[in-house]
Amino acid sequence: MKNFRTSLVREKFAITDLESEGAEPIIALSNRIVVPLLSDDGNVAENFIVRTQNMHSCTRMAAAIVKEFFDRGSIAKRKDFDWAYIWKEVTKGYEKEFNPDIWGTVYHKGREVFKSGNHHPFLDIIEKCDASNDGNYSQSVVFAETAFKQAGKTVQIDYDSNVALIIAIDEEKAKCGVIIRSATGATTFNFNASQQNNTRPLQTQTILTVAASYLEGVQLAFQVGFLKKKHELGLVETGSEEFKKYKKSEDRLANLNRALSSFDYGYNVHYRPDRPQFNEMVKKAEEFAMKLLEPQIKEMLETGDLDEDDWIV
Description:
The protein is α+β, with helices and mostly antiparallel strands. It has two domains: 1-171, no CATH class; 193-313, no CATH class. Helices cover 43% and strands 27% of the residues. A nine-stranded antiparallel β-sheet has the order 5-4-3-2-1-6-7-8-9, sandwiched between helices. α1 packs across α2, α4 crosses α5 and α6 runs parallel beside α8 (278-303). The radius of gyration is 22 Å and the shape is globular. The termini are far apart. 31% of the residues are buried.
């Protein structure tokens, strides 16, 4: 697919009922990505919106939609399109096992065409407002407030967002920018990719999948480092469910790293500033865990659960 442009945005909506004095705002969180599917003449043939609980599943669902469109044509015109199967493929394995409450939803022209799990219903209102106003998403909050008022409810909607992923693909090159904020600091990098001579073409779904792998990898690296340190301290027992999660997280992170290395080998890929190193992120997470777990360590030393000769705080 040529001339593909999209971005992944992390969003937070705070909806306050102005008619109820002292009312606490209701919070709606989401990750959102627009999936414009282009016809042969370069125009948008179909447009889907994906919202999910986490960033990597959102991006992988976008990749699955692009691939389906590229392989088999129009999705919107198919009455029997199996959205549930696509979502199952996106979330199978580690995600399904360790994130049972994950949710995801897909919209087309403001209408929910797929839903799995429980998302905040306010997100449906925002998508309807976006679609009914020619996709002027920046004004969707204002339109939503007006819609509430017309329904007899006065609310104030505060909106906060940050871009986590930007993708731009043309005939010769794909460009991707990733901005991930975590407890150990922000991870920001760009990469450009192009086809090597006489090799397989670079496809849009591949770039989306690679981006999703980095988004997931950064998150997993923090989890691996944190759980590794907890296990070393005896705060996670060998054989427990948390220990199982730790080891499966390690395996998943290693698989992601291998897949990304294969991508680097198969295409002309250039990173700036450098290719993110998950092992370095794991170490930073371990250091962060030490700071966060210091009170528990001191308590264990005081109670004798941890030998002070074996540990220095």
